[in-house]
Amino acid sequence: HFRSREVAGPLMFGGFFGDASQRLVDEGSVDYDKVLSEKDDEIRDLQEKIAALRNALHNDDEDEFREAMTAKNQALEEQSRRIAVLTSENEALVRRLGDVPPGPPDVESERAARVQAEDLARQAGQITASLQAQFIASQQDASELRAAQAEMAETIRQQAAQLVEIKNSATEVRVEQASNDSEQHKNNDVLQESAAEPHASHERQSSHELDEMKQLLEEERARCAEVKREVGRLEVALQVAQEDQSALEVGPSENTGVSEVAHKELHEVTQMLSAEQERASNAEREV
Q1: Reduced to 3 states, what is the DSSP secondary structure of residue 232?
Q2: In degrees, to the nearest 5, what angle opens at C-alpha 273 toward C-alphas 271 and 276?
C-alpha cells in the first residue's frame, strides 16, 4: 500500500505522465508473456524426453535383455546335455570294460584306452571351462543391462525433478504477473481518474495537496516506528517473563505464590503486547 500511494500520488496531479506509464505496463506484459512461453516450451520438451526414455526402458531394453538371457540359457542347457551324454557314455564304457573278462595283456589296447580316457577327460574339462566362461559372460551382460536400466531410471527421475522445478518457476512467474497486472490496473484507474479531472484545478491544488500528503505520510511513518519500538520492548519483557515463569515452574513447591504473581505479570504483558501489535497493524493499514 505504501508503494502504491507513493507512485500514485504524483501521478494523480499530472495527466501528462499517463503515456509513459502505459508504455511501461505494456513492456512488462510482453516480458512476462515471453518468459511464460519459454517455460511452457521447456516443459513440453522435458515431457517428450521423459516419454521417450520410458518407452525405451520398458520396450527395447527389456526385450533385448530377455532375448540375450534366453540365448544364454539355451546355450547352457545344450552344453549341460552334452556333458550328460558324455558322462553316460563314459559310464557305459566303464561298465562294458568291467564286464569283459581280463585277457592277455595288450599294450596297444591299454594305450588306446588310456588315450581315449584322456581325450574324454580333456573334452570334459574344455566343455566345463567353456560353460563357466559363458556363464560368467552372461552374468556380466546381465549386470551391464541392470546398470543401464538403473542409469535410465535415474535420468528419468532427474528429468521429472527438472520438470517439477520448471512448473514451480512458471507458477511463480504467473503469480507475480497477476500481482503486477493488478497493480497496473490500479495505476491505470488512478491515471484515468486524474485525466478526467479538469487540468486547471490540478495546477492550482497539486502543490498544496502534495505537501499535505507528504506531511501525513511522515507522521504515519513516525507513528509506525514508535509502535514498532514499543512492540519490541514488550516482546523483550514477554521473553523475560516467560523465562521467569519457566524458572518458577521447575522450582520447589514453596514458590507457588511467586509463580502466581509471575503468571499475572506475564498475562498483563501479553495483553499489552497484543494491544500494541494491533495498534501497529492499524497504523500500517492507515499508512
Answers
A1: helix
A2: 110
Q: What's the pLDDT band for 158 if we cut at 50, 70, 90? A: confident
Distances in whole angstroms, Cα of residue 185 to Cα of each of 5, 24, 148:
14, 12, 55
**Residue 57 DSSP label:** I
Q: Where are the chain's structural domains?
A: 1-196, 207-287
Q: What is the mean pLDDT of residues 130-150?
A: 83
CB atoms within 10 A of CB 168: 10
Q: Is the CATH number of domain 1-196 1.10.287?
A: yes
Long-range contacts of 18-25 (CB under 8 A, 24+ apart): 18/191, 18/194, 18/195, 21/187, 21/188, 21/191, 22/188, 22/191, 25/184, 25/187, 25/188
CA gap 86, 79 in Å, rounded: 11
- List Cα–Cα distances, 22 to 108, 183, 197, 211, in angstroms: 115, 12, 19, 26
Q: What is the pLDDT of residue 72?
A: 72
User: What is the spatial distance between Cα 123 and Cα 125, in angstroms, rounded to a whole number?
Assistant: 5
CA–CA gap between residue 130 and residue 268 (Å, rounded): 91
Q: Answer yes or no: pTM beyond 0.85.
A: no
